[in-house]
Amino acid sequence: MSSLSAPPAAFYVTGTDTGIGKTFSSCALLHALRQRGYRAVGMKPVASGCEQTVEGLRNEDATALLAASDPAPAYADLNPYALPLPLAPELAAEAAGVTLSLDPIEAAFARLRAQADTVVVEGVGGWLAPLSATLDQSHLVQALQLPVVMVVGLRLGCLNHARLTAQAIRASGATCIGWIANEVDPQMERIDDNVALLRARLPMPFWGRLPYAPGTDPAPLARHLLG
């Protein structure tokens, strides 16, 4: 998929690790869709590390997705599970006395789908980071029938992490429809060569490369994605 002439109705954004720019990439994708005239909304089904506000628990990643969405969905639909502690979801849910299940996520997703052309669903951590003792991210992807987009954080080790993640996605039965290179280490040596190696070895289409730009508005960077 090198253009957005026919975007999928929804897709799941995963990554090669935590802290590699899934939210930044998801927001840039939302803007890329909107700039092409599509109604696009984000979703963060499970978010840990939420702060208490006058409006309830809010997560920084989820609010970034909300800001990049048009139309703007209800926060509770965008982020059905908002967990206070900044821990792995299984631990954060246990600490909050919450049992994660698919039903609330599926209901929220259906409401988002009803108001948008495309829903960009952001996962947690890397692909194999569990949601609960009985729920993996692959189960969520299967339940919502989502193809997957993989974000590769460009840093030392990314070749191994990207290929392992791609293999794990395929082994789970999910379909990876594209990958994004995100520059997370400005000191990485021979970064262009690493991207070339990844493009030669990853079996899914290349959706673009985002520059190192911490704290930058993702809207203008959408031009780097999807041609």
Structure in a nutshell:
By secondary structure, this protein is α/β, with parallel strands linked by helices. It has helices at residues 22-35, 60-68, 75-78, 89-96, 102-115, 137-144, 158-171, 191-201, and strands at 10-15, 40-43, 46-48, 50-53, 56-59, 81-83, 118-122, 148-154, 176-183, 206-210.
How is this fold's topology laid out?
Layout: E1 10-15, H1 22-35, E2 40-43, E3 46-48, E4 50-53, E5 56-59, H2 60-68, H3 75-78, E6 81-83, H4 89-96, H5 102-115, E7 118-122, H6 137-144, E8 148-154, H7 158-171, E9 176-183, H8 191-201, E10 206-210
Parallel strand pairs: 1-7, 1-8, 2-7, 3-6, 8-9, 9-10
Antiparallel strand pairs: 4-5
Helix pairs in contact: 1-2, 7-8
Q: Order of strands in the sheet with the most strands?
A: 2-7-1-8-9-10
The level of helicity is: 25-40%
CATH class: Alpha Beta
Q: What is Rg?
A: 16 Å
Counted by DSSP, the helix tally is 8
Structural class estimated from helices and strands = alpha/beta
In the CATH scheme, what's the topology name? Rossmann fold
CATH architecture: 3-Layer(aba) Sandwich
- DSSP strand content: 15-25%
Instruction: Report the order of strands and helices.
Output: EHEEEEHHEHHEHEHEHE
Report the average pLDDT across residues.
Answer: 95
Please report the total strand number as a whole number.
10
Structural description of this entry:
The chain has 227 residues and is α/β, with parallel strands linked by helices. It has one domain (10-224): P-loop containing nucleotide triphosphate hydrolases (Rossmann fold). It contains eight helices and ten strands. The strands form three sheets. The protein has a six-stranded parallel sheet with strand order 2-7-1-8-9-10, with helices on both faces. It has a two-stranded parallel ribbon with strand order 3-6. It has a two-stranded antiparallel ribbon with strand order 4-5. β8 (148-154), α7 and β9 (176-183) form a beta-alpha-beta unit. The protein is globular, with a radius of gyration of 16 Å.
